[in-house]
Amino acid sequence: MDTKVLIIGAGHAGIETAASLRNLGFSGKIEIFDQENTLPYQKPPLSKSYIKSFDTKEALLRSKEWYINNKIDLKLNTNIKFINDKNKSLSDEKDNCYHYDKLVIATGSKNNLLGIDTKEYQQGSFFSLRNLEDSKRIRKKISEIETITIIGAGFIGLEIATTAIQLNKDVTIIENSENVMGRSISTDLSKWLIDYYTKSGIKFIFNKSFRSFKSDENSVTNVVLSDGTKINSDMVLISAGSYPNDLLFKNIKINEFNKIKVNSFLETNVNDIYAIGDCCFFDYYSKEVRLESIQNATDQAKTVAKNILGMKEQYNFVPWFWSDQLNIKLQIVGLLDLNSNIDIKILGSKESSKFSNFIFEDDQLKAVESINSPGHHLIVKNNWKKRNFLTKDKFESDFNLKNFFNSLR
After folding, report:
1. How far apart are CA 311 and CA 275, in angstroms?
2. Deepest of 153, 289, 326, 376, by most Cβ within 10 A of its Cβ?
3. How far apart are alpha carbons 274 and 268 in whole angstroms?
């Protein structure tokens, strides 16, 4: 094939797209553009194992030889600044021009830096985790300090907080709501985790937000909260969520909502432009979602490769997520509507920190949250299409999840 596929973004989504194209027999040209200057790497370790030790190396998504052997042109340290959808070309900051037949947008997301000037991050007053260089800076700083304040109790904030606790640091988390991971988990699980992490030594300040700061000559940062509370800390890390990295595409009318949204085939409404991963929105049943999940990124990459090759496959997926925090493995399957009235049935033991919350809405299973219970997670994930057979009345004291789904075969 003479078709040329360009991919903007060398994260999990972009690299898996290239791999899937080659696995499906595509022999055309593939070029991948990324702003970073290192071979594409795994992101999950950056908030955990990579921070703990200077001996830990980045885990590459693919070896250097893999790109050569598969004839994939990886253009690192290349910042695409403009897309011309009329003549199907890209331009970088050096005014180099690249033409495409098919374009895949896999630019991910950008951190919410709370309006703090980027020079404060460059000077070491504040930290935020998005890439390998950020993780290197955090690793160096955290080895030098005693106290760390984290603004935001989402997945990344908690992963870094629990990593810092393992390094015997004094950890305080500021959260502007009353829950941890409030957009992703039930209030029931949030309360359990708050209690668990409090006993582990993490201090929480809820229902307060960051207002301003002032650093003194000793590099101690005085963080001022919304109610005037002041916290002195050797290190401040911002983990306040993210937004789609879609600035590059504002010159194209991707759709009437002025954001990147794709249909079930992962197509934008601009011919031959697809989008996958954190940067795009799509419909999950009747709800519009944007998922920041490696599994979503790689699953979409496999689907978009088939559609580029004309196989016309819709993106049908099982949403699942995970997070390693301290000695907790959190796994979630399904998407939870936090505005709905829910009913929770529990399998396992909260006292032994090994249980799963089965979350129902109108007697329909919507999600399962598992703590140190990979068996529950795997069974439900593998039987997700049969979830409607699992109703609340099935949860007797001797209920066996595996036997239940086996009986449906």
Report:
1. 17
2. 153
3. 6
Beta carbons within 8 Å of 128's beta carbon, 6+ residues apart: 111, 113, 121, 134, 237, 238, 239
SS3 of 296, please? helix
Residue 225 CA to residue 227 CA, distance in Å, equals 6
Hey, which bits of 165-304 come out as E strands? 170-175, 203-206, 210-215, 221-225, 230-233, 235-238, 242-244, 273-275, 282-284, 287-289
User: How many CA atoms lie less than 13 Å away from 181 in the CB half-sphere?
Assistant: 24
Query: Sign of the CA dihedral 360, 366, 371, 375?
Result: positive
| 53-64 per-position pLDDT tens digit | 999 999 999 999
Note the helical H segments in 144-281. Answer: 155-166, 187-199
* Domains of the chain with bracketed CATH: 4-43+59-110+243-308 (3.50.50.60), 113-240 (3.50.50.60), 327-406 (3.30.390.30)
What distances in angstroms separate CA 16 from CA 10, 216, 299, 405, one per listed residue? 9, 46, 9, 32
Amino acid at 88: K
With contact defined as beta carbons under 8 Å apart, do 32 and 73 qualify? yes
Can you tell me whether residue 379 is helix, strand or coil?
A: helix
Q: Give the residue carrying structure tokens 């650093």.
A: 215
Strands 221-225 and 89-92: unpaired
What span, in angstroms and rounded, lies between the C-alpha atoms of 337 and 352? 28
CA geometry: angle 240, 317, 377, nearest 5 deg: 75
117 phi and psi angles, rounded to 5 deg: -60, 135
Radius of gyration of the chain (CA): 23
